[in-house]
Structures are given as C-alpha cells and as structure tokens.
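U., I forgot to send this yesterday:
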Amino acid sequence: MVYTGEVGISYDHGELRILDHGRHIIDASTHLFEGFLSTQQKSIRLVTETHEERMEKKRQNEKKRSAERTGQAYSMDQKTGAYFEEEDFAGLKNADSAGKKKQ
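Result:
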C-alpha cells in the first residue's frame, strides 16, 4: 500500500516503475519493490555569513596556516574562534576544570 504523500519505487524486469498512492499487486518474481519516497516539499533555511564574518574566518585560517608553517601547535577556541598555543590550551583546560570543581 502506497500512502498519499509518497510514491513506491520498484523495478519490473530491471525497468524503473514509480507506484502512485494506492494498492498495487506485484505478482512477478522479476518485479522487485525497492522502497518508498516522500513527495512532500521540505524547506531548509540557509544561513549566510556576513562579509565581516567571512573576512574574520579568512584571517583566522591564514593565522593557522602561518602557525603550521612555522611548526607551532595552535588550537582554536570554539566559542571565540581565537587561536592559541597548545601549551596555553592545557593551562586553560586545567583552570576550567578546576573552576567547575569549585562550583
């Protein structure tokens, strides 16, 4: 049974058959049912970056590439997008976990 809002996908002797909504009888062994596909429209909101955000991302990537070329190990803070040396990261992580233990 193919319900309203979807179609059935089948192959009859290797040829694609689209099954509309309703009841269908498949009695040949060479007619294979593959599955269902929704025919309902879906909306996706696209997020755009401002020119300033693109330029900041470009600056951060250039800073990272420069650090990699000089052999420095840098990480990026996910909240701020700022890069800092790995040694500083260990200190920040330890300070952060110590702060959480006090709470």
